[in-house]
Specification:
The protein is an alpha/beta fold. The chain folds into 2 domains: about 250 residues, no CATH class; about 160 residues, no CATH class. Helices cover about 50% and strands about 5% of the residues. Helix 11 crosses helix 15. The N terminus and C terminus are likely disordered.
Length: about 425
């Protein structure tokens, strides 16, 4: 009886996903005839098909964001010409960014941009060395490239290629080969990123399309079955987001969260310690000076501008102050997170990543194996049991206590050096 109920629920979920995808497609087709505001015309590709193809873009708007709205509706809501729209292979992106004056920019940023612009120049006509001032469209192209690079890094960690994920999932066979409902790591819809300059515009958007105007912090949002996982933020949410590298780290951090949840289909939430540990690791490879912290309900995050997390982790281990992975790994959200918990999640993730790509890919695959929907999202213990099995199968630890002991030994063996500062 329980099996028939579960199959029925899976059938409903797959049919709902398919219907949502078809509705989104119809909306997108309708948007194709929407006149383009001249202020939204990209001066680099100019919307020319050959230039878009060379850039690796599907288009620069208009396009659908969900089945309820698209770029034209957002432009009408916040004012035309603000957002610069880019659709890539895996993202639908909107950036409202001011020009960036590089006069007096630090050497590290100049070197970082020089490398990124070499990559941009291979795809975009008219792009060479970084100019003294980055115009809003150029910044949008730069962040589109960064989003795709974050996606590529996460996909590499899964051990799969784009072509391995289904274009459309019809089978009800939820076995070890199940890779989700669609081509975007298992999601049917592309991931959405909207970056506003002013939080008032984000709140206006949230009131219209998220059903709330109580958005005081950056927000990761699930638009529903068959719809996108989105990240929404504004530059005035954080004091440092006017800094180009800080914004890069900020986006990478939350993108990793959404990619973790979307992998093999968003059937249940990925445990918080893993998402934030991996997100911190990848963001710190960009630049360790700009950590991100999730905000618990009704209070500010316990975040600190402390660069040397290796030293922090070592101190916690040596003074028996490290919260166990059994406790940290059981938390579903960030309500109880303090600064040291972020350090511990990051350090344990670095330890597991040191075991090699094959082991990490196996862990990701096992941890995100589909659970029956009558258990998966409601019974958190099912998710935790699956996580424990994944740790044992992928890394060979018989228990979480064994993992903790091996991690602590690894931390003590690390050379005492200043943490990586980014490239």
């Amino acid at each position: 009886m329980k099996l028939s109920i579960a199959v029925s629920l899976w059938t409903s979920l797959i049919l709902a996903t398919s219907a949502a995808a078809q509705q989104l497609s119809r909306v997108e087709e309708a948007k194709g005839g929407t006149p383009v505001d001249p202020r939204n015309v990209d001066p680099y590709t100019k919307g020319v098909a050959t230039a878009l193809e060379r850039a690796g873009y599907v288009g620069t708007g208009p396009f659908a964001i969900t089945s309820r709205h698209g770029t034209a509706e957002v432009d009408a809501l916040i004012g035309g010409g603000k957002m610069h729209w880019i659709e890539t292979a895996h993202f639908r992106l909107g950036f409202d960014l001011p020009p960036l004056d590089l006069a007096g920019a630090e050497r590290r940023l100049r070197e970082k941009l020089a490398g990124e612009f070499r990559q941009l120049a291979e795809r975009l006509p008219g792009v060479g060395e970084p100019p003294r001032v980055l115009d809003p469209w150029l910044r949008a192209h730069l962040f589109a490239q960064r989003c795709e690079q974050t996606y590529a890094e996460f996909r590499r960690l899964t051990g799969y290629h784009d072509g391995d994920f289904p274009v459309k999932r019809r089978s009800l066979r939820m076995d070890d080969d199940w890779l989700g409902f669609g081509p975007h790591l298992g999601q049917a819809a592309k991931y959405v990123v909207l970056v506003f300059t002013e939080s008032t515009d984000l709140r206006r958007y949230a009131s219209e399309y998220l059903g709330t105007d109580d958005v005081r912090w950056p927000r990761r949002h699930d638009f529903g079955v068959g719809m996108p996982l989105a990240f929404l933020t504004a530059l005035d949410f954080e004091g440092n987001l006017g800094d180009d590298t800080a914004l890069h780290c900020h986006l990478a951090y939350s993108l990793i969260h959404n990619l973790c949840d979307g992998y093999r289909g968003y059937l249940f939430e990925t445990p918080a310690w893993f998402k934030t540990g991996l997100a911190q690791a990848i963001a710190r490879r960009i630049d360790a000076r700009y950590p991100s912290f999730d905000r618990p309900p009704d209070r500010r995050a316990d975040g600190r501008l402390d660069v040397d997390w290796e030293a922090r982790a070592r101190s916690l281990v040596e003074h028996d102050g490290a919260r166990s992975i059994a406790e940290l790994g059981g938390w579903r959200d960030y309500a109880d997170y303090r600064f040291h918990d972020y350090v511990l999640a990051w350090s344990r993730m670095e330890f597991l990543m040191s075991k090699g790509d094959v082991a990490l890919a196996r862990f990701l695959h096992r941890m995100k194996a589909p659970l029956w929907p009558d258990y998966g999202t409601r019974d958190w213990n099912m998710v935790l049991s699956q996580q424990d099995r994944a740790i044992q199968e992928a890394f060979g630890f018989e228990s979480l206590a064994d993992l903790d002991a091996a991690w602590a030994k690894w931390v003590r063996s690390r050379p005492k050096a200043v943490a990586r500062q980014g490239k």
